[in-house]
Structures are given as structure tokens and as C-alpha cells.
Design brief:
With 161 residues, the protein is mainly alpha-helical. It contains six helices and two strands, in the order ααββαααα. Bound molecules: heme C. Heme C (HEC) binds next to helix 2, helix 5 and helix 6.
């Protein structure tokens, strides 16, 4: 009887073992994470050479100024000017992804959040530019500025002290 019991137990253990092998075979192994990006610039260069000029183009594109004849607005006029402005907004939008390269983001949730905020606000600028809407371009410019500042407050200024 004891022998029979233990035989059943062995069978049970074996079948559990076989089942777990089956399950582990059926489960797909997660794909290994391959870092396929190369970061050529350091953060300071990326800011000064790519992100800042693109943002400047958006910020400088629309402005109001007073004259003796009343308030005047500067805004893109020709299709080419609007198209150039769109290039800058698109550069800024995609440049936010450059901040998300693992080596730069280092898995920091705050950093990732700020970079995405920049991308989304640049995307809004792109929509405003496509609508040729100066007021909306100006407003999204303010939002872009907020995204830059949010990140700088946490990651840039403290390091410069
Ligand atoms: C996700 C974070 C992040 C975002 C978003 C970000 N920056 Fe930066 N930025 C940094 C960090 C970090 C530094 C400091 C780099 C260093 O000096 O090593 C920096 C530095 C700079 C500098 C260089 C200042 C100097 O002393 O040379 C400029 C210019 C700049 N950022 C502009 C911008 C603009 C414009 C935006 C938005 C359109 C922006 N940044 C958005 C993280 C960010």
C-alpha cells in the first residue's frame, strides 16, 4: 500500500513536471532589448545645436509689436515661410525622441515624462502651423517653453550650481 501510494505520488510529480515543461515551451520568451541607437552628441550639444534652434524658429515666428499706427503682428506670410516653420516644429517634435535614447534617458521616469511633453507640445505647434494660425502657434510656443523649463528645473539647473 505504501509502495502504491508513493508510486502515485511519483507519477503525480512527474506529470506536474512534464506539464510545467510544456507550459514553459509554449510561453514565448521576451525579445531581448536591443539598443539600436547611437547618441553622437552630448546633451549640451543636442540642446544648443538641434533643440534650441528648432524651438527658436517657432518662438520667433510670431510676435506682436506696437507702432504709432497701432498693434502689428509678425507672422509667416508666404507658403515657403510656413513650410520652413513646419520643418522646425517637425525637427523639435522628433528631437524629443532623441532625448529618449536609453543612454540619455537612463530609465528616469521624470526625464521621460518631460521629453514626451516636449514632443507633444511640438506636435501641437505643427498642427497650428498647418492651420496657418499665428495665435495658436504663439500659444503652443508657450507650451513648448513650459516643457523645456520643466526638465531644466529638475535636471539642468541643479547641475550648474
Ligand atoms: C528631458 C529634459 C530636457 C528637455 C525637455 C529640454 N532640455 Fe535643455 N537641457 C537639459 C539638460 C540636462 C541640460 C544641461 C546639459 C549640460 O549642460 O550638460 C540642458 C541644457 C540646455 C541648453 C544649454 C545651456 C548652456 O548653458 O549651454 C539649452 C540652450 C537648452 N537646454 C535649451 C532647451 C530648449 C529650448 C528646450 C525646449 C525646446 C529644452 N532645452 C528642453 C535637458 C532638457
Amino acid at each position: 500500500m505504501t509502495n502504491f501510494m508513493s508510486f502515485t505520488r511519483v507519477k503525480l510529480i512527474l506529470s506536474v513536471f512534464a506539464f510545467s515543461i510544456l507550459v514553459s515551451c509554449a510561453k514565448k520568451e521576451p525579445e531581448p532589448i536591443v539598443e539600436s541607437f547611437v547618441s553622437y552628441l552630448n546633451i549640451n550639444q543636442l540642446m544648443n545645436w538641434v533643440i534650441d534652434p528648432a524651438a527658436d524658429a517657432v518662438w520667433d515666428s510670431v510676435a506682436w509689436y506696437s507702432t504709432s499706427g497701432g498693434e502689428k503682428m509678425i507672422a509667416p506670410k508666404t507658403d515657403e515661410q510656413w513650410s520652413n516653420l513646419r520643418n522646425s516644429a517637425a525637427t523639435l517634435m522628433e528631437a524629443s525622441n532623441l532625448l529618449l535614447i536609453n543612454e540619455r534617458a537612463r530609465g528616469d521616469e521624470k526625464w521621460i515624462k518631460f521629453a514626451k511633453k516636449l514632443g507633444l507640445s511640438a506636435q501641437k505647434a505643427l498642427v497650428a502651423i498647418d492651420a496657418k494660425n499665428p495665435q495658436a502657434v504663439f500659444d503652443t510656443g508657450t507650451e513648448i517653453d513650459g516643457a523645456c523649463e520643466a526638465c531644466h528645473k529638475v535636471f539642468a539647473y541643479p547641475n550648474r550650481k
